[in-house]
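Board notes (copied after class):
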Amino acid sequence: MPVHCRYSRSIRSHRLNRRLLQQRCDTLLRLLERRTATVSVVFIGDDEMASYNKQYRNKQGPTNVLSFPVIADTTNGFPHPENELGDILISVDTARRESMEQKCGLHHRLTDLIIHGMLHLIGYDHERSESEAELMWNYERQLFQQIQTTRSSSMPFLAINVDHVATIRQARGGVEPDPVLAASLCELAGADGIVVHLREDRRHIQDRDVRLLRQTVKTRLNLEMANVPEIIDLALEVKPDMITLVPEKREELTTEGGLDVLANAKDISRTIARMQEAGIPVSIFIDPDATQVQAALDAGATYVELHTGNYCDARTPEEQEQQYTLIEQVAELAYESGLKVNAGHGLDYRNVHPIAALPFIDELSIGHAVISRAVLVGMENAVREMLTIVRSM
């Protein structure tokens, strides 16, 4: 392995995705065309960094990153190791403080520091001149953008929401098309889960659908629901593989935004406690907002599902990039907080790829786009086409 990542015992309290950091280090060497080079990247705490600063730089206190390039010196009789670039020391404690100041995720900041340290190893130095400092900064931004396309895991899971199969059925008040059969076709095509939203007004999915799906779904059944007694009781009776608490307004066409966990903390906490007692994991559908992440964590949720609607509805590339960055940062924050992260709402065949590439998202929930496509090409083809995009990371 060309990059050797090591982690001090002093930073055990930080929840680091070691696989992601290793992957980003290896990708960086490839982008720098140094595939055969060897580098040591050591993640330490402030106390250790302060000690290195005092020993090697005669400076007090910690800094965020130190680089120690290997210098060829054969006068002592020892040959210079071929292709060895040197060592990078990174203080995770300092990186955490900086990430909070910059309103970005810890892994985002650590990636910045890895790039910065690596460029020092290959000869860049921002202290030599303003022009070199600008050149180095621009190169860092370019490398960061290229590295961000890499996921920490091979692919996200894809869950298909079959609500709108039931919407078509309810339009005529008959029995077809059947969302239970549609769910089976989705699974046959490779979907990793099935999602249904049992609304209070029963505008599409019915109680009978949920009970039948519980008996027939072979992957994972996720029941979306408002936090109301009637549906809580049904969920406890049916026992889906997980539930997702969502806001619900009778006049809305579809869910319009995330649940305000802060404003409903007591009720949500009570429901989560009941579900946990029954062995049912709980996800909360939230807007990509740091305060809502913390509120979901405090309430006892296992997952959050990030609302991607604003990203999907963006009118300009600049607005979409802004919304994407927000989702990226909050997904990382939720992961670092100990939550599992899903995402959904409005995702389609054109806009899903960047969200699927985010390294901290476990599962995507997609419904309307797949059902709309299925009208033209059939359910199995529609699911397979979406899977091809999602799994092309």
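Comment from the instructor: The chain is about 45% helix and 15% strand. Residues 367 and 377 are 15 Å apart (CA to CA).
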